[in-house]
C-alpha cells in the first residue's frame, strides 16, 4: 500500500502574530495525536544564503529591494527537494512563513506583485494557509516588536494590505490570533487535522 503524502501547511501573518509559537505547538499537537509532522521555517538562517538574509534583517548588510527579494526566494528553492521528499514520506510540514511573506514584504516596499511572484513560480503550493490576523494595537503590545528591520507600525500596515491581496479562499483560512495561545492552537489544529484527513491521493501542486 502506498503512503498517503503529508500535508503542506503554512502559517502566515503580520509580525508577532504568533506564527512561530503556533507552528511549534501544532507540530507537538499533531505528533501527540499520532501524526508525523515537522517544523520548517523561512527564512532558514542556517544556510549560506540564510546567513546573508540574517545580516540584512539585523541591519548588518545592505541589499537593494530586488536582491533581497531574490535571496528570500532562493532560500525557499534550496529547501524544495527536501520538502518534497518529506511530504512523499507521509510527513506533514508545518511551515513558518513562505512565499506569501516573500511577496507581501517586497510589494509593501513598492515592487510590483507580478515581479515578486515570478521567482516563486514552481515552488510547492501549500494545501492550507493559516493566516493569523492581529490588530495593530495587539501587535505593538507583544514582546520583541521593533528589534529588526521592517518592524515599524507604518510598514506593517502596508504588509497587512499586501497579504490581504494574496488571500485565496480556495486554500486560505483567516484566523483571529488575538486569543490565548492554547485556544489558538486548538482552532488551528482543527483546520490542520481536516486538511491532513483530506490528503489521500491528492498530487502535490505548484505555485502559483
Ligand atoms: N521576510 C521577508 O521579507 N521575505 C520573506 O520571504 C520571508 C520573510 C520568509 C523575519 O522573519 C523577517 O523576514 C520578517 C518578514 C521578512 N520581518 N518582519 N517584520 P521571521 O519569521 O524571522 O520574524 P520573527 O522575528 O520571528 O517575528 P515573527 O515571525 O513575526 O513573530 P511570530 O513568529 O509571528 O510570533 P512569535 O515569535 O510566536 O510570538 C511573538 C511574541 O508574542 C512572543 O513574545 C510570544 O511569547 C508572544 N505571543 C505569542 N502568542 C501569543 C498569544 N496568543 N497571546 C499573547 N502573546 C503571544
Ligand atoms: Mg516567527
TrEMBL record:
Q: Which GO terms describe its cellular component?
A: cytosol; mitochondrion; nucleus
Whether ATP-binding counts among this entry's keywords is yes
Q: What keywords tag this UniProt record?
A: ATP-binding, Kinase, Nucleotide biosynthesis, Nucleotide-binding, Transferase
Task: List the molecular function annotations (GO) for this entry.
Answer: ATP binding; dTMP kinase activity; nucleoside diphosphate kinase activity
Is-annotated flag, keyword Nucleotide-binding? Answer: yes
Start and end residues of each Thymidylate kinase-like domain:
11-183
Pathway listed for it is:
Pyrimidine metabolism; dTTP biosynthesis
- EC assignment: the record states 2.7.4.9
Organism for this UniProt entry = Pseudolycoriella hygida
GO annotation, biological process? dTDP biosynthetic process; dTTP biosynthetic process; dUDP biosynthetic process
Q: Which Gene3D superfamilies match?
A: P-loop containing nucleotide triphosphate hydrolases
Q: What is the enzyme's class at the highest EC level? A: transferase
Domain of life of the organism encoding this protein: Eukaryota
Which SUPFAM superfamilies did the record assign? Answer: P-loop containing nucleoside triphosphate hydrolases
Q: What name does the UniProt record give this protein?
A: Thymidylate kinase
Q: Which NCBIfam families match?
A: DTMP_kinase
Q: Which family does it belong to?
A: Belongs to the thymidylate kinase family.
- Please name the taxonomic classification of the source: Eukaryota, Metazoa, Ecdysozoa, Arthropoda, Hexapoda
Amino acid at each position: 500500500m502506498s503512503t498517503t503524502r503529508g500535508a503542506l501547511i503554512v502559517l502566515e501573518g503580520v509580525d508577532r502574530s504568533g506564527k512561530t509559537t503556533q507552528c511549534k505547538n501544532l507540530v507537538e499537537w499533531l505528533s501527540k495525536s499520532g501524526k508525523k509532522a515537522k517544523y520548517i521555517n523561512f527564512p532558514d538562517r542556517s544556510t549560506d544564503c540564510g546567513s546573508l538574509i540574517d545580516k540584512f534583517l539585523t541591519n548588518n548588510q545592505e541589499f537593494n529591494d530586488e536582491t533581497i527579494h531574490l535571496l528570500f526566494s532562493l532560500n525557499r528553492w534550496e529547501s524544495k527537494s527536501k520538502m518534497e521528499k518529506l511530504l512523499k514520506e507521509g510527513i506533514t510540514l508545518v511551515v513558518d512563513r513562505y512565499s506569501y511573506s516573500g511577496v507581501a514584504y517586497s510589494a509593501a516596499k513598492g515592487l510590483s506583485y507580478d515581479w515578486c511572484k515570478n521567482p516563486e513560480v514552481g515552488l510547492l503550493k501549500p494545501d492550507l494557509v493559516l493566516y493569523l490576523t492581529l490588530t495593530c494595537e495587539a501587535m505593538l503590545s507583544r514582546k520583541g516588536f521593533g528589534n529588526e528591520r521592517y518592524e515599524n507600525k507604518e510598514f506593517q500596515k502596508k504588509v497587512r494590505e499586501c497579504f490581504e491581496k494574496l488571500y485565496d479562499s480556495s486554500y486560505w483560512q483567516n484566523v483571529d490570533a488575538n486569543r490565548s495561545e492554547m485556544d489558538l492552537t486548538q482552532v488551528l489544529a482543527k483546520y490542520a487535522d481536516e486538511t491532513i484527513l483530506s490528503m489521500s491521493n491528492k498530487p502535490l501542486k505548484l505555485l502559483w
